[in-house]
Amino acid sequence: MPKHKVPTDSDETFGLRLARLRKEQGYSQRDLAAEIGISQRMLAYYESQSEHPPTKLLPLLVDVLGVTADELLGIRSRKPSRSPDGRLWRRFKELERLPAKQRRQVVQIVDAFLERERLRRKADGQSKATG
């Protein structure tokens, strides 16, 4: 059965789009390949040589990269937005699986860092106002 080309909104190939989305989410080829259960070599092939998306991997790629299938295929591009740090969000997802007591400890640590930053900004603002 012949493969059909997916109509896209841009000139970006599937491989280039996959590589871009992978990098936007902070994954190396090795990390993304491990996450979806293929070799790094196979992912490199999809990014550089393949014009056709791997159908059986589409649901995994969509889930891991946090995009829609249309976006991954280039059918509909999302509006440009400030994308969050993919590594940070993956860490948050891991933290959600910790026991409640450990999650509370992590939240306390994060709160301490945020409070320190708020105080630093406040002090910087006051010194600029008086200086």
In short:
With 131 residues, this protein is an all-alpha fold.
Describe this structure in words.
It contains 7 helices and no strands. It has 131 residues and is mainly alpha-helical. The chain folds into 2 domains: 14-73, lambda repressor-like DNA-binding domains (434 Repressor (Amino-terminal Domain)); 98-130. 10% of the residues are buried.
What is the topology?
Blueprint: H1 14-24, H2 29-36, H3 40-48, H4 58-65, H5 69-73, H6 86-96, H7 100-130
Give the ordered list of helices and strands. Answer: HHHHHHH
CATH architectural type of the largest domain:
Orthogonal Bundle
Stretches with pLDDT under 50, minimum 5 residues: none
> Between the first and last Cα atoms, what is the distance in angstroms?
74 Å
Radius of gyration computed on alpha carbons: 20 Å
The total tally of domains equals 2
CATH topology assignment of the largest domain: 434 Repressor (Amino-terminal Domain)
Largest sheet: none
Shape: elongated
CATH superfamily of the largest domain: lambda repressor-like DNA-binding domains
Helical amount among residues, as a percent range?
Answer: 55-70%
Please count the beta strands (DSSP E, at least 2 residues each): 0
Q: Structural class, from secondary structure content?
A: mainly alpha
Looking at how many chains there are and whether they match, the oligomeric state comes to single chain
